């Protein structure tokens, strides 16, 4: 039996992991610098160090899973962070959020949510809606900060009414507004919030440093937050949400106040967290173009009611139209294509050509070349998320007209 499979007292280690050593082994490890204690109080060697400290425990034995054991190492799609909270990996494979007939009324009769029923699966989910649609209220209910007027909601398998504190220990939250202290450094702030989640001091410092490195603030981690730009402050808020090995991230308007370059960088970070780290992410935003760029699923709410919940692929499926836009000569191009028996209609500055088979693309290309027109856009039209709200506004307008 290898050293890794043998306990210090000679007994066999539990399968798939390393047994918890006795005090003599701990003293030896501390003296030689070959081991360290994780946030859960378990010992592991530096060879088994994972992406964040305290990660990847074996759910069966409670021991650390070493990376050189292919039989027990979780795959790239496993939600390994759930194990840090005593959850089985399978716990995060079903719905991470389930709400049934959820309603929230504020004093004065203001209805923030009305009979909202939804289910959120692992991955990156976009929560979209106009300002005042109820997105922030829903997030506060999910965190157990608000008690709904009616209905039930479960987050990571826990009832938000009864286990709000436990949920907040498993969920990373990035608030919308600027709420950062100006007179402390980034590492002090993130470490402090790590301690609030229950991490020991050393583990909190390690995770804070790692989280700040992942969001691109490793070099600036000792600067006071008051000296940071808006984009850097948003990254600090994202870093503090990562500390504590969350199984779910709730991000409320994460690109708020950022310029285009800052938005691109923030969206790239969120996409990386959701795909490479295996953490479920819910992104609340009113910017629909951002949601289309990074999300797998979409939940659209309007006036506190569910508008639609589906995968983004199904909502943005291709349409049988080819959009063609030229700087000049659109009329000539339309006549030329119609003369070849193609169906053409105008939509703003673009021409929409119906795609019935593959040769339509070649016909449009040849027509533009023959007429020597300066083409600026040629794309296969798809549904856009904006069309959901456009259709809703159109339906409301028709109802008002009928009244």
% residues in beta strands: 15-25%
CATH class of the largest domain: Alpha Beta
- What is the string of helix and strand elements? HEEEEEHEEHEHHHEHEHEEHEHEEHEH
Shape: globular
Predict the CATH topology of the largest domain: Rossmann fold
> Given the helix and strand composition, which structural class is it?
alpha/beta
Uncertain regions spanning at least 5 consecutive residues: 1-92, 392-403
| Domain module tally | 3
CA gyration radius, whole angstroms: 26 Å
Average pLDDT value?
75
What is the name of the CATH superfamily of the largest domain? Answer: P-loop containing nucleotide triphosphate hydrolases
Strand order of the largest sheet: 8-9-10-5-11-12
Characterize the biggest β-sheet: 6 strands, mixed
Number of beta strands: 16
Tally the helices. Answer: 12
Estimate the helix proportion, in percent.
25-40%
How far apart the termini lie comes to: 82 Å
Proper CATH architecture of the largest domain: 3-Layer(aba) Sandwich
